[in-house]
Design brief:
Length: about 300
């Protein structure tokens, strides 16, 4: 069983209903703790942003055991695959400018649940954070099911929806740095019934712009709900400069993928095909890049 298969099986187990009256424990692989003032790192950002007062300690061994990071014996192989996936995304983010508005915002998407999107988002975030000149802000935009916030122990922390609801909040005060150099998290925040309207608002557009202006080296990796099941994901797609669509091989119907792409028409879309057993032995992913309807495809194996 591949690492992606293990991840998807754990996600399926987490979604299975429990017998009435029982409480199912959910794994958490991070903890939010105060930052001691003497240990706070100096800001490298080009515009003022509130200094964080809390930090997430990520249990990478726990993530690895849960199948959300590759095992040690596969780490080099999968790291190389993610290097190939991230290179055009970073190039566009750095060079996009006026030709690709909001190129620094990369949305992680899938047509349906259980495609491997969370696995891909976490591993891509870790891979991008290894870049010397890049800061990665992982934003949990999957507001119906904020799994990344939960996994990193920040499910109860204020975040995206809170700053969109309350214009007096400074987003910088809600960003949680992690003990992974170059990686920070903006949690989903408190669930609200008007989440779609908040994500589709001018305040959301202004927030995306502000995040880029405050740190020109920042790439915003925006996790989203499934495109075919929610309206929140389509609102998020409107503010993203680049979109990564994760598709599970031999699982997602071709028409479902085409329907999902129809919501992204004219956008810059990268395709990641998980569990492609027909790929080269070293590859889990098949990768294509370009505007929807005209993607140029290449093997990442």
């Amino acid at each position: 069983m591949s690492i992606v298969e293990k991840t998807l099986e754990k996600m399926r187990e987490a979604r299975r209903p429990a017998p009435a009256g029982t409480r199912v424990p959910q794994a958490v692989f991070g903890a939010v703790a105060p930052i001691e003032p003497t240990r706070a790192e100096p800001s490298t950002q080009s515009a003022p942003e509130a200094s964080p007062t809390r930090r997430i300690a990520i249990d990478q061994n726990g993530l690895r055991e849960a199948g959300l990071l590759p095992p040690m014996h596969q780490s080099r192989q999968i790291a190389e695959q993610y290097r190939q996936i991230k290179r055009p995304l970073i190039a566009n983010a750095v060079q996009g400018g006026g030709t690709l508005p909001n190129a620094h915002v990369v949305m992680m998407a899938s047509a349906m649940p259980q495609e491997g999107k969370t696995f891909t988002a976490i591993n891509l975030a870790f891979s991008m954070a290894r870049e010397k000149d890049i800061n990665v802000l992982l934003v949990d935009g999957d507001t119906p099911k904020p799994q990344i916030s939960h996994l990193f122990g920040a499910a109860d922390s204020p975040g995206l929806l809170d700053v969109l609801e309350d214009g007096k909040l400074d987003v910088g005060s809600l960003i949680l740095p992690t003990d992974v150099p170059g990686l920070a998290l903006l949690p989903a925040g408190k669930r609200r019934e008007n989440a779609t309207e908040l994500l589709a608002s001018e305040r959301m557009r202004a927030l995306v712009t502000r995040l880029g202006e405050r740190d020109p080296r920042r790439i915003v990796l925006l996790d989203s709900p499934p495109l075919m099941l929610t309206t929140e994901s389509r609102a998020l797609a409107a503010v993203a400069g680049q979109i990564v669509l994760v598709v599970r091989a031999a699982h997602t119907a071709q028409q479902t993928v085409l329907d999902a792409l129809s919501y992204l028409e004219g956008r810059s879309v990268a395709l990641v095909l998980n569990q492609n057993m027909n790929a080269a032995p070293t590859g889990y992913y098949y990768y294509g890049y370009g505007e929807t309807g005209d993607a140029q495809k290449e093997s990442s194996g």
